[in-house]
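Support reply, case 0932

Customer input (verbatim):
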Amino acid sequence: VNFVLGFLIFGMVLWVWGEEYTPTENVKYGIHADSLGVELGLRDGDKILSVGGKPFTKFDDRQVFREIVINNASTITVNRDGEEVNLDIDPKFIKELTSYKNKGERLFFARIPFVAQQFSDKSPAEDAGVKVDDQIIALNEEPTPFFYDFYLKVKDLKKEPVVLTVVRNQTDTLDFNLATTADGKVGIYPYPLETERQSYTLAQAIPAGTVKGWNILFDQIKAFGQMFRGKIKASESLGGFGSIGKMFGAVWQWERFWTMTAILSLILAFMNLLPIPALDGGHVMFLLYEVVTGKKPSDNFMEKATIVGFIIVIFLVLYANGLDLFRWLFNK
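Our regenerated output:
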């Protein structure tokens, strides 16, 4: 039932909201590599072409993460300064990327010019005279050709006077004096990358949702395989109710809510099929034993096995939630 429910919910999500993504071809200025990306060998300005031989057509650092952790990708191919470069990935990065300290950390961002799209309430920049479509190119006379360059320089300047240099109408270069906010901002939102949204009819959404659900389920199975091989630490990846709650995000979004509900439904279905007594998978295991041997396990054995299975399940629940509690107490 959980399998069917998960597939149907995925289908409904695709039917109602479609699927939004950023085509890699829209990332014209390459990436800004964050610290983990730099460790992998990425550099600012790289344009990612493929990961583990698979074309990188949808711009999302989670795809790179998935291919390395789940599919053991050993190379990333990038266009660097007009040349194709292959970056070898050390297998140690599987544990590095799945460690709790790096949970949620980004590998890279898209580099975008800092062109003002809109302003926040009480924006220091707008009050100083900056206008929509102005392109910010420098902070305190230090070049900031891209938005993230500006962010890195301004975030530690809190309630400090600064000078913004902007280009207006692609011809005029102007300077504006202003003071940053208490959290190191100037109150400008840049134009985001252009995204595309694929729409589905109901007839298309159901099979597409099923395929998406199976892919997620297979990824979970592969992840368990990586744990058994020792490539992923269970203590770093498992979590309880607290971790599940964080997956839904800090802001309520119906699309995200139903997507996470579908994922949890599939995970529960998979966990229920594990060969542990007291779960459906345990019953299947005993039925297979009866089919092969022609002998039915005794009621006394079944009772004891069910108790053992129940203890295992309770231990796993307590262990997962204990990890959440430990992280909350010591990783604040």
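We compared this against your earlier run and they match. Two observations from our side: Residues 244 and 264 are 9 Å apart (CA to CA). Residues 299-330 form the longest helix (32 residues). Please reopen the case if you see a mismatch on your end.
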